[in-house]
Amino acid sequence: MVLLRNLLLTVLIHFSSYMYAQDRIPLNKHFYQVENPKTDEVFFTRLENRTQAGDTVVWIFDLQNRMVSQSRISINPEGNFRQEVTEYFDSMNNRTSQTILNLENSKYITAYFENGMKKGEVFKEDINKYHIWRQNPDSSYLNDYDDFKPGFNPNDLNDFYAKNLTYPLAARRSGAQGTVIVAILISGSGEAKAIELANGIQLDPVLSEEALRVVRLFKGPYTPALDLKGKPIEKWLYIPVRFKLS
After folding, report:
1. Residue 30 · residue 236 · CB < 8 Å
2. CB atoms within 10 A of CB 238
3. According to the model, what pLDDT value does residue 200 have?
4. Percent with pLDDT over 70 in the chain
């Protein structure tokens, strides 16, 4: 664990020597592409570039052209694994978080910042093993999920899917498949305040409707996200609903 941690923390992001640039892609509030860029569903834009070294670099901007995030997919120079480094910024261009994700095993480290100082960290060592601290590294504890994000028991959801999720006949006949991402706004008290599609335009609408139907039936229970002081806050939770023909 220590070796992986040191490898991940040595990563620096350098944006230079780009080979090409694309037009900006309109995104909704969940950072997924929208079909019609002239609607009020557009909250952000996305710009992607490729470096001469073959790295993929992505920026996301708000409608005032302020950078919301930047990410880079590359090979870790010390560990020789594919990684994605993503940083988020507030409206004053202050960094609020940095996530270093190992794309080969899904382990990650997320550091959280406040006024330029590191005030929290999550290290995902395994699927149900997270090392977390807030305000001071000495406050570190082990958890079975990342509590900076809303949570729920995945076993409960899988059982619910098995009993309630169906593969629409029209989608089967057309060969439609894919993963629908459903966004749920979880309040500070653990209530689902809103449920909506995050990536709706990219999939068959019949699959999207079925995913929404099932997630609306699922009542959790949900656990609210915690802020840097450990207080419950309102935050979006994203649940994948996978449809795959056998």
Report:
1. yes
2. 13
3. 67
4. 90
Interacting residues of 134 by C-beta distance below 8 A, sequence separation 6+: 119, 120, 226, 228, 229, 230
Confidence at residue 53, expressed as pLDDT on a 0 to 100 scale: 86
Alpha carbons 193 and 136: distance in angstroms, whole number: 32
**pLDDT tens per residue across span 92-125:** 999 999 999 999 999 999 999 999 999 999 999 9
Exposed (0-12), middle (13-18) or buried (19+): which is 20, by Cβ within 10 Å?
Answer: exposed
> Cα dist. 215→112, 193, 209 in Å?
30, 13, 10
End-to-end CA distance of the chain: 37
CA-CA distance, 244 to 223, in Å (whole number)?
A: 29
Give the count of beta carbons closer than 10 Å to the beta carbon of residue 229. Answer: 11
CATH topology of domain 2-143: Outer Surface Protein A; domain 3 (3.90.930)
The contacts of residue 61 (CB under 8 Å, 6+ apart) are 24, 44, 45, 46, 47, 67, 68
The pLDDT of residue 246 is 79
Place of tokens 């507030």: 90
Q: Kindly list the domain boundaries of the chain, sorted by start residue.
A: 2-143, 151-243
Q: Dihedral (C-alpha) 131, 133, 139, 140: value to the nearest 10 degrees? A: 10
Using only C-alpha atoms, the chain has a radius of gyration, in whole angstroms, of 19
- Please state, in angstroms and rounded to a whole number, the distance separating the CA atoms of residues 107 and 5: 10
What is the pLDDT, as a whole number, of residue 11? 42
Determine the CATH number of domain 151-243: 3.30.1150
The Cα 205–Cα 201 span in angstroms is 8
Q: Which residue in 216, 217, 234 sits closest to 225, CA to CA?
A: 234
